[in-house]
Amino acid sequence: MALKDINLIPEDILARRKILRSIRLWSKVLAGLVLVISLYCGIQIKAIQEIKPDENRVAQTRNELLSLVDRIESSQKEYNRLLQERDKLLVPFDRTSASVPLQIIADNLNARTWLRQVEILSDPGQDNRDWSGRIDIRGEALSHADITGFLQVLQGNALFRDMELKYAQKEDSGRTMNGRLLPLIRFQIQGRLGSSG
């Protein structure tokens, strides 16, 4: 004898139950998806809110850097202005420095002449292109011949112009040389410097 399974519940009710189970299942899946999406959105919103202060700090740093750049530019302009003023005050002494005439003087000093002061002043010419420097040399020598020899050497050099002996005066004090006290003659030579080339 075979048993037959007989379902006493009408088929339309069974179909409705099946649909309701499917709806419940899919509702749970949908609620899970909504929950996952909500969590993801919440994490993203939190990350964006954390980034916003960084953006504020970046904007603040940017503003500070722009302010610093402005200060640097204004300082650079002031520096350039001061350099221009300095260049106006300091007229170049030829294209070389004062070392050229000083080297010539040093090379032509004899053992019986000593210098106390060498003063070189540059005077601007027209448009600062031409120049003439004034030179004032003060020193001591053992004799008038030593001074004359030194002056002639300077007068013979094209760099030195209008070199003149302003004074030569014998001093009571002197220098000791080989155990002897030698009287000194103080002198001053003045002239102009010109371009050597």
Give a brief rundown of this model.
With 197 residues, the protein is α+β, with helices and mostly antiparallel strands. The protein has helices spanning 11-89, 99-108, 144-155, and strands spanning 113-124, 131-141, 160-177, 180-193. It folds into two domains: 11-90; 99-193, Alpha-Beta Plaits, CATH 3.30.70.
Overall, the morphology is rod-shaped
Class from helix and strand fractions: alpha+beta
Report the uncertain regions. 91-95, 126-131
Number of helices: 3
**Average pLDDT taken over every residue:** 82
Total domain count: 2
CATH C-level category of the largest domain: Alpha Beta
Total count of strands = 4
Strand content: 25-35%
CATH topology of the largest domain: Alpha-Beta Plaits
Order of helices and strands: HHEEHEE
Helix content: 40-55%
Task: Give an overview of the whole structure.
The longest helix has 79 residues. A four-stranded antiparallel sheet has the order 1-2-4-3, covered by helices on one side. The protein starts with 10 loop residues before the first helix and ends with a strand. With 197 residues, the protein is α+β, with helices and mostly antiparallel strands. It has two domains: 80 residues; 95 residues, Alpha-Beta Plaits (2-Layer Sandwich).
Which terms would index this structure?
2 domains, alpha+beta, rod-shaped, four-stranded antiparallel β-sheet, single chain, Alpha-Beta Plaits, 4 strands, 197 residues
